[in-house]
Amino acid sequence: MDSMIKLFVSLLLFLFSSLLFGDISASKHVHHHQKLQGRPTKLFVFGDSYVDTGNIKMHDAPSWEVPYGITFPRKPSGRFSDGRVSTDYLAKLLGLKSPIPYQWKDYAGHERLEYGMNFGVGGTGVFETINSNMTMTYQINLFEQLIGDVYSPSDLSSSLALVSVAGNDYITYILGNGTNKPGFITYMKQVIDQTEVNLRRIHALGVKKIAIPLLQPLGCVPVVSKGSLVADCKDRINVAVIIHNNLLQSVVAKLNKETKDSTFMVIDYYNAFLTVFKNKGETPGSTKFETPLKECCGGICGAVDEKGVKNYTLCDDPTSAFFWDGLHPTQEGWKSVYAVLGKNLTASLMKA
């Protein structure tokens, strides 16, 4: 019975954990005298499974089970992918190693703490999703407790915060309330308003640059589209995502007007994902995926029955797939997204 409960919780976490929306080698540390003007020196990460690099306790989620992590680091690492996730690619753009997950901070040497910290946990929402600890407020509380002890005000003033969250809120709402349009729009406004509160709080704590991804086209993720091609995307769901993204961009514009600089920025996952889906080979650095909406790990990825029989199927080559499972990109998928974001994102991140 315990094993069934554990599997049920894991599957719930898998479902919720990021309806949000070849190889990277860790860059050498860039010393202070080598830094470009405006380059963040630390990365602090808040959010869900699109950014989680190991904060869920081992074996509490599919991300700690085989075949997750088969590409990198060739074993499960708590990442919801076959390899690296968005946090790793953003850190690469900054010339930093991927920040240490909060769960492992007490086991890390001082050098690893120099790159910042990752508070992201799969399943997190702006509001409560699976349990009361999986909220942005809780993650920001953990961050605040480290200020003055582990990180100084000067550390924060030269850092970047990545805030990747909201998809879990929408799927949780829909499961509990359906898709009643007036109620859903009201809830969306609540999510946006609380996101604004969270962004203001992170800024008030001393972080001067804050990046927040737009939701990706949720109507295209395999668990929703149940297809293989862009034509299989559920356009009605993507329209709702566009509304969310427009409201979020308005909040970012308002915050920037108040702070008199480009402190806040969005990362356009929505158009980057669509560009990769539609790529026919003309986008440098982006893989041409023949069936971009077909996941590599089908079924209940990472789950086995009581006899050890796999409840999933696995494709021959994860680099040929954009999606790893029903919700999350492969390492090759994330690599292609960041290839599309490319120089424009790098320039925005480096602005003084």
Automatic annotation (TrEMBL):
One of its GO terms (biological process) is lipid catabolic process. Keywords: Hydrolase, Lipid degradation, Lipid metabolism, Signal. The keyword Ligase does not apply. Residues 1-26 form the signal peptide. It holds the Pfam family Lipase_GDSL. The lineage of its organism: Eukaryota, Viridiplantae, Streptophyta, Embryophyta, Tracheophyta. CDD domains: SGNH_plant_lipase_like. Belongs to the 'GDSL' lipolytic enzyme family. One of its GO terms (molecular function) is hydrolase activity, acting on ester bonds. This is SGNH hydrolase-type esterase domain-containing protein. SUPFAM superfamilies: SGNH hydrolase (SSF52266).
